[in-house]
Specification:
With 481 residues, the chain is an alpha/beta fold. It folds into two domains: 289 residues, Aminopeptidase, CATH 3.40.630; 166 residues, Alpha-Beta Plaits. Helices cover 38% and strands 21% of the residues. It is globular.
């Protein structure tokens, strides 16, 4: 009876809000979002010297001050620097909860590489600058802002809404989603998960092109290429040089392409993108969307080759592997005894990582170069086995809510299911059996992606539009039926 009374009261309060009051609430939400965004950007949360706990506590403080009960806010983790925030917005319990995730940590950023201070929030020429503006403190700010707005409006969802802002998505040994799943599954268990760190909304020259919903992602695996040698004095050079062996193997890797692969999600992507693309690229996408080919393999191969000239389309069509780190030698006047390279692979869902390792060994084509998997470790220090990440089914409930919100906000912008070429925390929730959907809620310029790079930025209006879109989507997913 108490829940029903509160539900009726909530409905009456919301229904009574005038258009002017709604506009005022939206404007206040905009100011709150900017303040939260600024606060998060200016907290250094890098793995090397930053502190995720500081950011988690700052957001917890805002939620407490916004009316969330103490028992519904958890700030905890495996160590003092890597604590995660979990907050629960109580609903009627008619339906199972929704989990909303975002990571608080950011990749390293050096002041000397940037035009501005990466940990100073700066608004300039229509953009917000700072490390994490794109990846992904903007998404964290959206979620905190809208949890606060909904609480202020006395909104009563028909299900619990769970917010988890976590550590070590970008690296480090204490991934927050992994830790929460293992240690406190009941805190984050949900019917499905919305991940704002994926599902890009794309624009080009100010034109909104598409809204992505990420339902699948490639598997992240690092391999080590290593060459060992007894070494010796550099005054007596030998062609049997560990660095030369390694360099030859990497040169062969550079010109190698893994076989083409397409799944339901990428087929959907190419078919729908072809409809909003023109010219030869559209024609090639239509051919690829018919994979496996009914007859003409040569036509498919030609289309794949042309599309693969684009790094992004290439990554959607193949497993990709690239050298990312090098080390070798021990003294400037000695022949190298070791030479190593880290080769980062993004493996197409369904492909066996061990078969990829064997393929890399064949590509290296040198008995003096070994190829091994670099072990990944979970928060408890144990080696994490490399497993495939199952795609999430396109639930009608999620698709309908997203299509309705998209149509109301930006009529005509198509919704397209996508496979992420990078790794997100969505892989952990998917493996744990929680269907996960990447929905960024903000538009990013497809030709100006600066995540992980210097002078990272996000359009000011794109951020504010994202705040409003996220608010509407949360309500659409959780309003009483």
């Amino acid at each position: 009876m108490q829940s029903r009374t509160r539900s009726i009261l909530s409905f009456c309060l919301i229904a009574a809000i005038s258009p002017a009051a709604r506009a005022q609430s939206q404007d206040q939400s905009k100011q709150t979002a900017r303040a939260i965004f600024k606060q998060l950007i200016e907290i250094n949360t890098t793995d090397s010297v930053g502190n995720v706990t500081t950011a988690a506590e700052a957001m917890a403080k805002r939620l407490r001050e916004g009316g969330f009960a103490e028992e519904d806010i958890k700030v905890t983790g495996p160590n003092d620097r890597k604590k995660n925030l979990v907050a629960r917005f109580r609903g009627t319990g008619k339906r199972k909860p929704i989990l909303f995730i975002g990571h608080l940590d950011v990749v390293e950023a050096h002041r000397e590489d940037w035009t501005t201070d990466p940990f100073e929030f700066l608004e300039k020429d229509g953009y917000f600058y700072g490390r994490g503006t794109e990846d992904m403190k903007s998404g964290d700010a959206l979620l905190v802002t809208n949890f606060l707005r909904l609480r202020k409006e006395n909104y009563l969802p028909d299900r619990d809404l769970i917010l988890a802002l976590t550590a070590d998505e970008e690296g480090g040994n204490f991934n927050g989603v992994d830790w929460l799943i293992k240690e406190h599954r009941d805190w984050v268990d949900a019917e499905y998960c919305i991940n704002l760190d994926a599902g890009e909304f794309e624009k080009d020259k100010g034109n909104r092109l598409l809204a992505g919903i990420q339902a699948s992602e490639k598997v992240y695996v690092d391999y080590q290429f290593e060459s060992l040698n007894p070494g010796g004095h550099s005054s007596v050079p030998s062609p049997d040089n560990a660095i030369y062996h390694l360099a030859g193997a990497l040169a062969r890797l550079q010109s190698y392409s893994f076989p083409v692969d397409i799944n339901e999600i990428t087929r959907n992507f190419f078919a729908k993108t072809a409809a909003i693309t023109t010219g030869p690229v559209s024609a090639d996408m239509k051919v690829v969307a018919m994979y496996p080919p009914p007859a003409d393999a040569a036509q498919l191969n030609a289309a794949v080759q042309r599309l693969s000239a684009s790094p992004y389309y290439n990554s959607l069509l193949h497993t990709t592997c690239v050298a990312t780190m090098l080390s070798g030698g021990h003294a400037p006047n000695a022949l190298p005894q070791t030479a190593r390279a880290n080769v980062n692979c993004r493996i197409f869902p369904g492909e066996d990582p061990e078969e990829v390792r064997k393929a890399l060994e064949r590509v290296a084509n040198d008995p003096k170069v070994t190829v091994t998997v670099v072990a990944q470790r979970s928060a408890d220090g144990k080696v994490v086995p490399v497993v495939g990440v199952p795609p999430s089914p396109l639930l009608p409930e999620v698709m309908h809510a997203l299509e309705k919100t998209l149509s109301a906000s930006w009529p005509g912008v198509p919704l397209i299911a996508t496979m992420s070429t990078g790794a997100t925390d969505g892989r952990i929730t998917r493996i744990a059996g929680i269907p996960t959907y990447g929905i960024s809620c903000m538009f990013f310029d497809r030709n100006d992606i600066r995540a992980h790079g210097k002078d990272e930025r996000l359009g000011v209006q794109d951020f504010y539009d994202g705040v409003d879109f996220n608010y509407k989507l949360i309500r659409e997913l959780s309003s009483p039926r």
